[in-house]
Amino acid sequence: MSNKRYNTLNNEFKRIFGGKVMKLSVDGGFTCPNRDGTKGSRGCIFCGEEGSGEFAGSRQIPIKEQLEQQKDLLSKKWNSDQYIIYFQNFTNTYGTIDRLRSLYYEALELEGVVGIAIATRPDCLDEEVIELLTDINKKTFLWVELGLQSIHEKTEKFIRRGYPLSLYDKAIDELKRNNIRAVTHLIIGFPNESKDEIIQSVKHVAKTNTWGIKLHSLYIQRDTDLYNYYIKNPFSIMTMDEYIDITIESLERIPKSMVVHRITGDGKKDLLIEPTWSLNKLKVLTSIDKELKIRDTFQGKLFDT
Ligand code: SF4
Predict the structure, then answer these.
(1) Highest mean predicted confidence (pLDDT) among 79-83, 85-89, 180-184
(2) Of 118, 121, 88, which Cα lies nearest the Cα of 105?
(3) Closest CA to ligand 1's atom 5
(4) How far is Cα 219 from Cα 213, in angstroms, rounded to an integer?
(5) Closest residue by CA, ligand 1 atom 3
(6) If DSSP codes are grouped into helix, strand and coil, which group holds residue 245?
(7) Using 50, 70 and 90 to split pLDDT, how confident is the model at 267?
């Protein structure tokens, strides 16, 4: 597990590709059934104007140009000539099959691209889409991200997710059946959830034994309905220490092999209202490392199959 007590994405990239891989976020110009009136019209309660993908390129410009811009931007920070194209904003399998095919293949043909990541919803993975993803999976390194956030029905209603847990389970089965890597997003810190309930969600995802997981704290962003809710119904915000404690207990309960894509958030500084401590990402990450050491624990320590 490198120098970390959990299995990071960088570690996995190193193992598979022999070095650093840059993840380049692009905006494929999609919307979301939870925003366009099909499932809902206001989206998930925490979802901002950019559809939960805060750092993707601009949807006004073609994918190829977005990628060049992202490469320029990130090459100042990272030195790599291997890229994963990340379709991040909104629901990236929500379109006609022809459009999806041409978009994914356009991304794959670009120089240096070694894989593709697609963020979507379980209700946007019909047979045709699964078939297309299965084909792509045979040609490149593919993963699919699902924003579950919580297994609890009360939270599903509160956040207006617009699909039940059973649909997530079904999508996971389908992805696994076709050997497609799945990554599940969970949010820690909903106002109506106890620590035990958060751990129950983590254990549910752990049991899927899928490829990856993303954890982050609930953010309250200015451009969201959650912000309006918070103004009218102020609730207590998780402290950094509480977050670190739950994150460590979560890491202990997932399989050792599960790839941890994220354990803290990337909220937009100018929009973030709470938790303000999450802006100091480095401090959160080093505090998690330190606390793992103090507790002499590690990812998978308490995972039971
Ligand atoms: S599913 Fe994703 S894009 Fe759609 S409303 Fe929810 S957070 Fe936003």
Answers:
(1) 180-184
(2) 118
(3) 43
(4) 18
(5) 90
(6) helix
(7) confident
Q: How far is CA 84 from CA 24, 26, 39, 113, in A?
A: 6, 10, 30, 6
Ligand 1 contact via 35 beta carbon (within 6 Å) = yes
Fold of 9-294: pyruvate-formate lyase- activating enzyme (3.80.30)
Q: What is the reported pLDDT for 56?
A: 54
287 CB within 6 A, ligand 1: no
What integer is the mean pLDDT of 166-175?
Answer: 98
Among 39, 42, 44, 221, the mutation site with the greatest number of ligand 1 atoms within 8 A of its Cβ is 44
Pocket mutation for ligand 1, best pick of 121, 125, 167, 185 (most atoms within 8 Å of C-beta)? 121
Q: Is the pLDDT of residue 1 over 60?
A: no
Mean pLDDT, the chain, rounded, equals 93
Domain boundaries, the chain: 9-294
Q: What is the DSSP letter of 217?
A: E
Are 220 and 171 in contact by the 8 Å Cβ rule? The answer is no
Query: Is the minimum distance from the CB of 181 to ligand 1 under 6 angstroms?
Result: no
Q: Report the first-to-last Cα separation within the chain, whole angstroms.
A: 20
Q: Is the pLDDT of residue 166 over 70?
A: yes
Structure tokens at 113: 């691209």
Distance from residue 173's CA to the centre of ligand 1 (Å): 22
Higher pLDDT, 258 or 26: 258
How many angstroms separate the alpha carbon of residue 91 from the centre of ligand 1? Answer: 7
How much distance in Å is there from the Cα of 304 to the middle of ligand 1? 32
pTM over 0.90: yes
Q: What is the rounded distance in angstroms from the CA atom of residue 125 to the CA atom of residue 41?
A: 20
Q: Ligand 1 centroid to 61 CA: how many Å?
A: 22
Confidence of residue 249 (pLDDT cuts 50, 70, 90): very high
Residue 15 CA: distances (Å) to CA of 8, 20, 169: 11, 10, 29
Question: Which tokens hold the place of 160?
Answer: 């207006």
Which two structure tokens, joined as six digits, stand for 215?
């954890």
